[in-house]
Structure formats: structure tokens, C-alpha cells
Amino acid sequence: MRLRFSGPIWFWRGPAPFHFVTVPEAAMIAEIAPVVTYGWGMIPASVTIGATTVTTALWPKDGGYIVPVKKALQDAEDLAVDDEVEVVLDIDA
Fold first, then answer.
1. How many CB atoms lie within 10 A of CB 87?
2. Alpha helix segments (H runs only) across 3-79
3. CA distance 80 to 60
């Protein structure tokens, strides 16, 4: 499954700080989640922003999913909180 969407990068200050983009097409992902999750609702995926692709896992949050924006991706694409980004999300189903 491939999804393309855009959204702002936001900061979550949990036990460890993370940066995320919220996935707007949560219903489509929820349909395949039972097949692809490896536990706790985490869904393995590859994420492309700009010219950089990384592997990660979507996190379930508030009935939807969020995409972690890893430090390597932030550095490679010079990204910061509140930047609006175009995301290509690939989930092997």
C-alpha cells in the first residue's frame, strides 16, 4: 500500500523527544493493520520525504496513526518542527 499526503511536523515531548507527521488516511491503514502489525499496533513502513527514504514504524494514536520523523531524515532534508512536508508512505501488505 502506498499513501501520499502532506502535513506539518510536530513535536512530542514524551520520555524521549520525537517528531511526527499525522497520517490523514487512518481508515485505510486500519483495514490492513491486523495483517501487518508486529505488536502494540505498530506498523512497519518506509517513509520518503524529499529525496530521503527511511524505514520506521507507524504509531497508533487517538484512533489514527502517526509517522515518526527520524533524526537522520530531519538532518538529510533539513527539517524542523512546523515544516509542511510531503510524505510518501509504503506499507507492505
1. 20
2. 26-36, 71-77
3. 22
- The answer to whether the pTM exceeds 0.70 is yes
DSSP strand pairing (43-49 vs 2-8)? unpaired
Spans of all domains in the chain:
2-90
Domain 2-90, CATH: 2.40.30.100
3 state DSSP class of 16: coil
Q: CA-based Rg of the chain, rounded to a whole angstrom?
A: 12
pLDDT tens string 58-87: 999 998 999 999 999 999 999 999 999 999
The owner of cell 485505510 is 28
The whole-number average pLDDT for the span 43-66 is: 94
Query: Measured between alpha carbons, how far is 16 from 6 in angstroms, rounded to an integer?
Result: 25
